[in-house]
Amino acid sequence: MLGFIKKDLFVVKGNLKTLLMVIILYGIMIYMGEMDILFVIPFFSMLFMLTTFNYDNYNKWDLYAVSLPNGRKNTVRSKYLTSIIGIVLSLVVGAILEMIIKNTPFKEAIDMSLAIIFGISLVISILYPVIFKLGIEKARIFIFVLAFALALIGGLIIKFINLDFNLDLSFLKDYVNYILLLLTFIILLISYKISSIIYSKREM
Amino acid sequence: MENVICIENLEKKYDNFTLKINHLEVPKGMIMGFIGENGAGKTTTIKAILDIIKNYKGEIKLFDSVNKEKAKEDIGVVLDEAFFPEILSPKDINMVMKSSYKNWDQEMFYKYLKQFNLPEKSQIKTFSKGMRKKLEIITALAHHPKLLILDEATSGLDPVGRREVLDLFQEFMQKEENTIFLSTHITTDLEHIADYITFIDKGEIIFTKMTSELLEDYGIVKSSREEFKSIDKKDIVCYIEEKYDVEMLVSNKKSFKKKYDFVSIDKVSLEELMVLMIKGVK
User: What number is the ipTM of this complex?
Assistant: First the structure.
């Protein structure tokens, strides 16, 4: 599996020029206050993971990977692990930059980071089984639908909590970080299991 | 004789194609050429052997075991147009494979890179088709496999490159326990190196024969239409009628010549044999 993780990292490394351009562009936007550091960095980390699926597809890596020892198992495992590592690392960088540039207190930066980890993990957890089932080409339409649906559902939830039910969730305040971490772990685990089953049966 | 690949009653159905192999075995220590026209089922067979396709009926054993994952440590693979993302370099491939195979031999890999003049730090996308193919082949060889499964491994190579690669295969075969299962369109390569030929057509195995026997026993008979009328159809494998004459494939040159001494018989190449068997009337 380590080999497959390395492969994805080499693909990202191969896109270093694009990565640097994106960093500079968004660095400027962050500096101008147009973008949120904590969100942007892990979001792009996720996008780069999706890029690795594109490269795999273009050169039919999946077929080749399956012919290697434990190819199917390692393909799924490595994608999840690389994504988690990438998101956590980019959040650490984001949190540090947030604290330095915006003087955000440590506790607040951690709270925000965990919420973002949960959000991005949720997207990955829904997206990856679909990619493993359909392939990145066909899953592309789903990505757009998913982005739209999540934005819509998120908006509706906020609207309901604030306006209609006026729920008091303050009792959860002390536990919210733990709950988020646990939820993140559970949804990723369920998603990984589903992807593994799907990919173990997939026709190439 | 011990077999490294053994297929029994394999059946895989698609909407417009069915692969149906009742029996196929690849003996240890041999090179088996796998020939047939495009869409005959060569790649599908290879995909089934490597578990790239699923949901088929029948049984495939590798090294006498149905546990393919374990067997894959001892298999080197070249697939038709499927390899690493082209943004990687041979150096990156070495790093990936080092963590993928227990027996990965870094020194051997770099030795081959040098031998074939492949730059280790350039991205694959800068390579010519022939260079890519060579890289795929040396990647398949560098973990000391006991079985090479090669799908169109020599296509895209110029004659010199093909010769270099065939020499590499022969070097690989110097170890008695090693085996090659090789599908290709370039049948002349097989005439030089293959011990056995398996011919597949429309998803079914037509025959598996020793290459030497095939080339010695089979022959092409060209006769006039008049002469053709006097030949018993049971004595020929298949024939193609042309404007003025008829071309026939016979499976036993000597006995045919004895019976019909008025015809001339030529040696048959694998390519001619393949074309006649596909296009000819049986």
Answer: 0.88
**A199 burial level (CB within 10 Å; 0-12, 13-18, 19+):** buried
Q: Which 8-state DSSP code applies to residue B209? A: E
- The parent domain of residue B241 ranges over 218-279
> Are residue B95 and residue B156 in the same domain, yes or no?
yes
Residues B57, B140 within the same domain:
yes
Contacts of B76 in chain A (CB under 8 A): none
Domain boundaries, chain A: 2-201
Binning pLDDT at 50, 70 and 90, where does residue B229 land? confident
User: Chain A within 8 Å of B55 (Cβ-Cβ)?
Assistant: yes
Residues of chain B found within 8 Å of residue A14, distances taken between Cβ atoms: 85, 87-88, 123
- pLDDT tens-digit profile of B65-124? 888 888 999 999 999 889 999 999 999 999 999 999 999 999 999 999 999 999 999 999
Q: Which two tokens stand for residue A177?
A: 């970080």
Residues B222 and B199 in one domain: no
Using DSSP bridges, classify how beta strands B179-183 and B31-35 pair: parallel, antiparallel or unpaired: parallel
Tell whether B202 is within 8 A of chain A (Cβ): no
- Are residue B170 and residue B272 in the same domain, yes or no? no
Tell me what pLDDT residue A170 has: 64
Residues B199 and B270 in one domain: no
User: Which residue positions in chain A have pLDDT lower than 50?
Assistant: none
Q: Which residues pair with A161 in a beta bridge?
A: none
Considering only CB atoms, A14 lies closest to which of B50, B54, B87, namely B87
* A13 φψ region: left (φ > 0), alpha (ψ -120 to 50), beta (else): alpha
pTM above 0.80, yes or no: yes
What torsion do the CA atoms of B106, B111, B114, B115 make, to the nearest 10 degrees? -140
Chain A residues 74-93 with a CB less than 8 Å from chain B: 74
Nearest chain B CA: its distance from A12 CA (Å):
9
**B77: chain A residues, CB-CB within 8 Å:** 64, 67-68
Chain B residues inside the 8 Å CB shell of A62: 82
